[in-house]
Structure formats: C-alpha cells, structure tokens
Design brief:
Layout: H1 10-18, H2 26-35, H3 42-54, E1 58-61, E2 70-73, H4 77-90
Antiparallel strand pairs: 1-2
Helix pairs in contact: 1-3, 1-4, 2-3
C-alpha cells in the first residue's frame, strides 16, 4: 500500500475525512468541524487545507463570483493510503480532538 509522503496530524486527518463528503470551501470545512465540537478559526482551517494541497492530497477549484474556492480529494493510491491513515489517526480520539490544535 502506498503511504502519504509524511504522517498526517490529527487535524489534517479530520479535514481530509470531512472532504470525503463533497468538495467544500474553507468556511464549510470550518462549520462542519464546529458542528462536530472542534472550533478552529478559518485561518487555521485554510492552513490545514493548504498543507494537504501541497502534499497532493487535495485539488482546488478557484473562486468563481461570490462562491469561495472549493477543495476536494485528489485521486490515486496516495489519497487511498492517506484516507486509511486518517481513519487510524482519528479512531479513538474524542470529536473535539487533542487539547491543542
């Protein structure tokens, strides 16, 4: 099985798993995290998305009109391995995650 380039952090794993639902904007990811008990400011969520984008695990659709940039999962063996790793990272952790984001 192909492994992601570096181990995922807890918060990268949470964001990656949220993006399995559908392509989402920074605000949508932030709101979904908050709905699950983890409140991160939008700049931190944007940083996490940028890290995952740089790792090749996400794709980005640029802003069109008033709709924000959308992020979606990439395709291929690396994303499959990253999703497996993300599940293992968050398994057994509380929804709010570790104490320090």
């Amino acid at each position: 099985m192909t492994q992601p380039p570096t181990p995922l952090t807890f918060w990268q794993a949470r964001v990656l798993l949220l993006l399995t639902l559908e392509p989402q904007s920074v605000e949508e990811v932030s709101n979904r995290m908050a709905d699950r008990g983890a409140v991160l400011n939008t700049s931190r969520v944007r940083q996490l998305l940028d890290e995952l984008l740089a790792a090749g695990l996400l794709t980005q659709t640029p802003r069109k009109g008033h709709v924000g940039t959308r992020y979606a999962l990439s395709a291929g063996p690396a994303i499959d391995a990253a999703l497996d790793q993300a599940y293992e990272v968050v398994k057994g952790q509380p929804a709010s995650g570790p104490r320090q984001p």
